[in-house]
Design a protein that fits this description.
The protein is α+β, with helices and mostly antiparallel strands and 124 residues long. Helix content is 16%, strand content 47%. The chain has one helix and nine strands, in the order H-E-E-E-E-E-E-E-E-E. A five-stranded antiparallel beta sheet has the order 3-2-5-6-7, with no helix packed on it.
Length: 124
């Protein structure tokens, strides 16, 4: 009985340690515009990575939030590849550098950006 309790406690402790050391924002972005998207980024991102998304393309995008220790909202910014016009908007919420949802879906349309969070309630 004591061995089982120690094993359970050890697994729980390791799960907490590893989940706290890798703060990551997880996104699925779909470009449903009539144009390609250049230089897209989402803040806060410790890696400050820029990506391009072709029209009709859906990608998974992860940001590193290890340096973030506060609450806030995300900022997405990108450039229309044809007009070079930059669009930016804030959305969502994170707390202490941790994403609240498991995944945030971002749908980019010609005239708007739609976001929706997904929570994974599966036991795995």
């Amino acid at each position: 009985m004591k061995m089982k309790l120690k094993t359970t406690f050890t697994i729980l402790l390791l799960t907490i340690v590893f989940s706290c050391s890798h703060n990551q924002g997880n996104f699925v972005i779909s470009n449903e515009c009539d144009f390609d998207i250049n230089s897209l980024y989402i803040l806060p991102d410790s890696n400050k990575q820029l990506i391009n998304i072709k029209k009709g393309q859906i990608i998974k995008y992860n940001i590193n939030m290890n340096d973030v220790k506060i609450d806030g909202s995300y900022l997405i910014s990108f450039k229309n590849s044809e007009t070079k016009k930059v669009r930016s908007t804030s959305f969502g919420y994170y707390t202490n550098g941790n994403q609240v949802e498991d995944i945030i879906n971002i749908k980019i349309l010609n005239d708007t950006i739609i976001t929706s969070g997904k929570f994974d309630f599966s036991p795995n």
